[in-house]
Write a structure and sequence with these properties.
The structure is a homodimer of 144-residue chains.
Chain A lengths: L4 H16 L7 H8 L3 H13 L3 E4 L5 E4 L8 H9 L23 H16 L4 H10 L7
Antiparallel strand pairs in A: 1-2
The first copy, chain A, binds a DNA duplex (30 and 30 nucleotides) through helix 3.
Chain lengths: 144, 144
DNA sequence: TCATTTACCTAGTGTGTCAATATGAATTAT
DNA sequence: ATAATTCATATTGACACACTAGGTAAATGA
């Protein structure tokens, strides 16, 4: 019942690009330094974000990554799902799965459905823009 | 971000004991048959529930397991936490952990805290009694 | 007393995921 | 041409997951 490092790093990575990429694309090396995450690991994560169409990439010197949409268009849930896969708490709630044979009589399913709603309620409520605002509120003493 | 089989089975196991154990203790063999879970695996799960003081055991013929308290005294969260460990979505929210060095400047932490609250809000809201009632509402056509 | 039924305990096993590293190729600005 | 960057794939070690196996201990009752 944990968010993996991939998910957590992806969020920090996206936030880092949002904050530092308003004029030039952000190279992974810079993010890696700011966030204390290895470039190599970030490469894996960003490749998933590129595939998912969340960021675009520019190769070569002066290259890097850029958000495709406005920060307010990215919910936390979108980012997490892209790198972690679905966030549903049990497999039988997965999209495209028609559930187990006990479905009808399964009272615990009711719990899992509510849990799923609760999780979605949080991760789909906040966007990158919210995170940026919170970051600003904290002042410039702290670099994210 | 998944509830493991241990957690899901533990819930079904506790519910099975709650429903079938009002007069006699419930042997694992019976639960295993009703729930289609191996006795061996249930043994592991129940041992954790015994250690946690959620159920008591009686050995020998006519033995089995009994709830120690009323069904309404067991939240879903208590049961899940006993067999799964903490349900917090990120390690830095774990009890007794003083958090990572980025704590202060970590805006994502705010998300994780809300997520934690949301999860707790669901699993600590419902009890075994609720599950029993739902089960009854479904009629006797279905055996849990 | 002895067989049977139950709980209890410890270890093992195959599979997969997590959290990275490593190596190298392709692209592009200067 | 060189350096900076992204892109692609493989590998690694540790650990967790989902079980299974084998045996011990206690209680019952015939």
């Amino acid at each position: 019942m944990k968010i993996s490092t991939k998910g957590r790093y992806a969020l920090r990575l996206m936030l880092d690009i949002a904050i530092n990429g308003s004029v030039n694309p952000v190279p992974l090396k810079d993010t890696a330094e700011r966030q204390s995450i290895s470039v190599k690991y970030l490469e894996q994560i960003i490749s998933s974000l590129v595939r998912g169409g969340l960021v675009s990439s520019i190769r070569g010197p002066q290259g890097g990554y850029r958000l495709i949409k406005a920060p307010s268009e990215y919910t936390v849930g979108m980012i997490l799902r892209q790198v972690e896969g679905s966030l549903v708490p049990v497999a039988c709630l997965e999209d495209g799965v028609e559930g187990c044979s006990r479905q009808i009589e399964c009272v615990t399913l009711r719990i899992w459905k509510e849990l799923d709603q609760a999780i979605r309620g949080v991760v789909d409520k906040y966007t990158l823009e919210d995170l940026m605002i919170w970051q600003e509120e904290m002042g410039d003493n702290y670099v994210i």
